[in-house]
Amino acid sequence: QDADLEYAPEEYPQVLRPLLAGHADVVYGSRFASREMRKVL
Questions:
Q1: 33 — alpha (psi -120 to 50), left (phi > 0) or beta?
Q2: Distance (Å, whole) CA 41 – CA 9
Q3: In degrees, to the nearest 5, what angle opens at C-alpha 12 toward C-alphas 36 and 35?
Q4: DSSP-assigned letter for residue 15
Q5: By C-alpha distance, which of 5, 9, 29, 7 is closest to 19?
Q6: Phi, psi of 7 (to 5 degrees)
Q7: N- or C-end of the chain: fewer Cβ atoms within 10 A?
Q8: Structure confidence at residue 1 (pLDDT)
């Protein structure tokens, strides 16, 4: 993130939710992926 709002601020809670709930150690996002949540092992 380089402060150009590449990522929509209203999507931050969705990205942070797994981290804050203790379900993930890291969360990666891609603007090329669909908006549905995916779990990769």
A1: beta
A2: 27
A3: 15
A4: H
A5: 29
A6: -110, 135
A7: C
A8: 56
